[in-house]
Structures are given as C-alpha cells and as structure tokens.
Amino acid sequence: MSLSVIVITRDEESSLRDCLASVAWADEIVVVDSGSADATVEIAREFTEHVYIHDWPGFGVQKNRALSYATGEWVLSLDADERVTPGLRGEIEDAMREAKYPAYDMPRLSNYCGRFMRHSGWYPDYVTRLFRRGSAHFSNDVVHERLLPDGSVGRLNTALLHYAFDDIEEVLRKLDQYSTAGAQKMHGCGRKASLTGAVLRGAWSFFRTYVLRGGFLDGREGFMLAVSNAEGTYYRYLKLMLLNRKQGTSG
User: Fold this and answer.
1) Where are the extended beta strands (E) located within the chain?
2) Quick count: other Cβ atoms within 10 Å of Cβ 184?
3) Of 6, 179, 192, 228, which residue is most buried, by most CB within 10 angstroms?
C-alpha cells in the first residue's frame, strides 16, 4: 500500500526537518509552501522533489491543493510541527494493510512551552489524518479546517506528537494570528460581539481549561495555557466587535 504524506508550510525552517525525517519512510512526500522567507523550501527539497509554491488562500484550500498532488493510495496529512513516532508508523502501516476503514483518526499529544499536556482539554485530542485517497477532502475554512471523510472513521491508539508552542513569544504570535482569522471568519458568518461578551467568554475559557478540563494537573504550564486560551478568546471576540463596528453592525 503506497502512502503519500502532505504538508503545507510557511517559514517552518525550525521544525520542518524533524517533521519530514519522521516520515522519510513514506513512498511520497508532498510539500506546498506559501512564500517562505526562510530556508523552508530548501529543507523540504532535501526530502522530496515534490515541492510546490502557491499563494495563501487559507488552511483548507491549501491542504486540498497539497492533496491534489498526492499519488499514493493512502494519504497522511501532517503539520510541520508534528512528528510520527516509530510506534505510530507501525499502526499506520497495519491500518493501511487491513483497510477496515477509509479513514483513521489518532490521538495527538501536544507540547506547550516544553511540557507535553495530558489535561487542559489538549489530550487525547483525536485528529483524522490518515485516509484512502479519494475518500476525503478538507473543508475550505480559512482557519480550523477539518478533514471530511466520505465513510466511517477508525481509530489508532498511538499518539501523534505535536510541538505546538516552543516559547511564550510563539504563543503570543499565534494568538494574534488565530484571533484575527477567527474574528474574520465569524464576521463573514454575520456573528456579532460586544465588549462585555468578549470579557465573559474569555473568563469562561479560562475556567473551562483550568478547572473543568483539569489544567491545574498540568502544573504551571496548565495555568499558562488557560491564560493564553482566555486571551485568545477575548481578543477574537474583541476583534469581531471592532470589525462589526467598522461595518455599522456592532451588537
């Protein structure tokens, strides 16, 4: 059973080599880059000749572009900050060989500022990433895209490793990016927001992460994550409020 690994990138020189090295055993690696200003493309070409440059239309469309280049019978979709362990490789190969399902999800174990988070709503965080080519596609969402399989989904047991945030600077940078993209998406759907609502939603996000989802069991990083989740939620709705105000539709 042939396997294509697809990865979309932009300025991922710090993480891409480890990602691609973890799947160097695959039959094909496809990388779609969106104008990296660092050594991302050069690193990708160390592992594969299938490197393509495109504009940036959003996560969903870009992943569908990468999928269109894949030729393997099966496809594994990865982000540049993810790693496939030898144990997960074995499960992937078994799943392709047995082919009980057209798609499979797997638990994802994420690292936040040096700590793998086993609580806080971050684990097991099942993600559907392995599928038979032609049996699934990605939603066209600009952010928080989803894989949409045509049939039922099986489940693997070994975790995909996810190095989500190396340091607090990266947390703040991505918080700003994702809160902006999230606000724009909600604005496009006609959602409204207010300052009070932004504050309350941020507070609820902290309580849900730290208390209800056991973030306190993840030590100081659990508290840090709960705070950054609260900030991300607050700024997402605050930005939505300001977008609405520009359009004269504030709630």
Assistant:
1) 3-9, 28-33, 51-53, 74-79, 82-83, 103-106, 108-112, 115-117, 127-132, 136-138, 147-149, 153-155, 160-165
2) 16
3) 6
Long-range contacts of 41-50 (CB under 8 A, 24+ apart): 43/13, 43/16, 43/17, 44/7, 44/9, 44/16, 44/20, 46/17, 46/20, 47/20, 47/21, 48/20
Confidence of residue 250 (pLDDT cuts 50, 70, 90): very low
Q: Point out the domain boundary residue: 164, 191, 221.
A: 164
Last residue of a domain, one of 143, 164, 185: 164
CB–CB of 95/171 below 8 Å? no
Mean pLDDT confidence for 204-224: 98
> What integer is the mean pLDDT of 110-120?
97
Residue 36 resides in a domain:
yes
| CA dist list (Å): 126 to 49, 87, 156 | 31, 17, 9
Give bridge partners of residue 105 from the DSSP assignment.
128, 155
